[in-house]
Structures are given as C-alpha cells and as structure tokens.
Amino acid sequence: MPGNVRLMGTSSVLPKAKRNHDVLSLEHEVSHEDWRGFKGGCNTGSAMVGKTLFMNHRAPANGRYKPTCYEHAANCYTHAFLIVPAIVGSALLHRLSDDCWEKITAWIYGMGLCALFIVSTVFHIVAWKKSHLRTVEHWFHMCDRMVIYFFIAASYAPWLNLRELGPLASHMRWFIWLMAAGGTIYVFLYHEKYKVIELFFYLTMGFSPALVVTSMNNTDGLHELACGGLIYCLGVVFFKSDGIIPFAHAIWHLFVATAAAVHYYAIWKYLYRSPTDFMRHL
C-alpha cells in the first residue's frame, strides 16, 4: 500500500509538472515574440493582447505611450525625409544673405530647423530599435523635447532680428531665448511628470513673440506666419491623441512639417532675396 500511495502521488505530480512546463514554454514563446517586436520586427503574428498593428492602448497619466512597430516606422520616416530639405533650405537663406547679420540669422534659423528634424529622427530610431537601452532612450527623449523650445526661438529669430522693432518689443529678441533656456531646465528636472504644464509652456512660447511681430509697421508675411501657427495648433490635437487615433504622432509630424514649410516660405519671400537675385549669385 505505501508503494501504491507513492506511485499515485508520483502519477498525480507528473501531469502538474508537465502543465507547468507547458506554461513556461508558452511564456517563453510569447516573450520571444515580444522581443522580436521589441527589436522592431513588424510581424503580424506577434501582436500581443491589448494591441493592434496600428495602435496601442493609451498611456497612463504619468507614463509614455508605446507605439506599435508600424507607428515607430512612421514616426521615423515622417521627419527623416525632411532633414535634407532643411539643410538645403538653410544653405539657400545663407546664400541669399546681404550682410553679416542676415547670415547669422540664417545660421540660427537653419540650425534650429535642422536640429528639430535630426534630433526627432534619431530619438524615434532609438525608441524603435534600441528601446532596451532605457537610459539612452530617456536622454534622447529629453533632447527631443528640449530642441522644440530652441526651434520655436529660432523660428522667430528672422522676424525679430531683421525687422524694425520698437524699444519694448526689441527685448523679445533675447527674452525668447531665455524662455527656451527655462523650458530646457524644466524638461531636465520634470521630464514627463506634468505633461499639461509642458504643453502650456510650448504654446506660451509660441504665441508670446507673435504679439510682438504683429505690432510691426511692416506686416508683410504675417498672414503666412499666422497660418503656420494655426497649423501647429491643429497638430497639437494629434500630438495628444496617442492611443486614440492610429499613427497620431506621425500625423503630428506632418503638421509640423507643413507649418515649418509655410514659415520658411514667408522668411524666404519677405526677409531674403527673390530666386532671380539668387541666380545672379551663382
């Protein structure tokens, strides 16, 4: 009888051990598939519970949205294809400059424009392909947020530097860079902690110089400036819609690209030379 009990106990344990082994094997397979998706493979067979191919669930209030593989790719490509045009456009403004001040302004604006697309692209590539390097991803995400402040300041630089301003309005030339520095410090200290406050800072910095620019005697280009600002504001809707609208962040990138193109056109047309003048310099 003791032998039978021992045999029965053994027979009752073996199926349980087998079940545990099967569960562990299944977990290993899921983890392996997750890792493939984690590394950037867009495999339709590796979709996890609560995820789709084109959108994941919304992030918690204090967390960051995790894009799907296809969203990662769209986030990268929508800004990567603008790097070369930004460099060429910056070189064009520098070429069209008449004096040292215009060249410096073209350099400032061009650096801000190129940095926006380069840093954004690098961050999204790291978030897509190297997200297991959490510290690296975190720092690039911070840089991605910081560069927005300097891009806003650089976008206003041609209007503030090359147009005649009143005594009080002229202070905006340096104050906007002080705001950019303050925004950078805020990101460094409170990155991703108070998202609404961060968005408020972006909008405040974007609208404050506009009040000065609209008070200029020369109003050429202000319609384009306002149009670009409106496009940015509409894009914010998608910026805050991750997990609600598929590819929301990539759509936000397209709004940024469109608004930046409108602003560049206004700067090129009203603050620098015409294409016919440029051809004479070649």
Automatic annotation (TrEMBL):
<feature type="transmembrane region" description="Helical">
    <location>
        <begin position="139"/>
        <end position="159"/>
    </location>
</feature>
<feature type="transmembrane region" description="Helical">
    <location>
        <begin position="171"/>
        <end position="189"/>
    </location>
</feature>
<feature type="transmembrane region" description="Helical">
    <location>
        <begin position="74"/>
        <end position="94"/>
    </location>
</feature>
<dbReference type="GO" id="GO:0004672">
    <property type="term" value="F:protein kinase activity"/>
</dbReference>
<comment type="similarity">
    <text>Belongs to the ADIPOR family.</text>
</comment>
<dbReference type="InterPro" id="IPR004254">
    <property type="entry name" value="AdipoR/HlyIII-related"/>
</dbReference>
<feature type="transmembrane region" description="Helical">
    <location>
        <begin position="106"/>
        <end position="127"/>
    </location>
</feature>
<keyword id="KW-0472">Membrane</keyword>
<dbReference type="GO" id="GO:0045666">
    <property type="term" value="P:positive regulation of neuron differentiation"/>
</dbReference>
<dbReference type="GO" id="GO:0140911">
    <property type="term" value="F:pore-forming activity"/>
</dbReference>
<dbReference type="GO" id="GO:0032880">
    <property type="term" value="P:regulation of protein localization"/>
</dbReference>
<keyword id="KW-1133">Transmembrane helix</keyword>
<dbReference type="GO" id="GO:0016020">
    <property type="term" value="C:membrane"/>
</dbReference>
<dbReference type="Pfam" id="PF03006">
    <property type="entry name" value="HlyIII"/>
</dbReference>
<protein>
    <submittedName>
        <fullName>Monocyte to macrophage differentiation associated</fullName>
    </submittedName>
</protein>
<feature type="transmembrane region" description="Helical">
    <location>
        <begin position="196"/>
        <end position="216"/>
    </location>
</feature>
<dbReference type="GO" id="GO:0005794">
    <property type="term" value="C:Golgi apparatus"/>
</dbReference>
<feature type="transmembrane region" description="Helical">
    <location>
        <begin position="251"/>
        <end position="272"/>
    </location>
</feature>
<keyword id="KW-0812">Transmembrane</keyword>
<dbReference type="InterPro" id="IPR005744">
    <property type="entry name" value="Hy-lIII"/>
</dbReference>
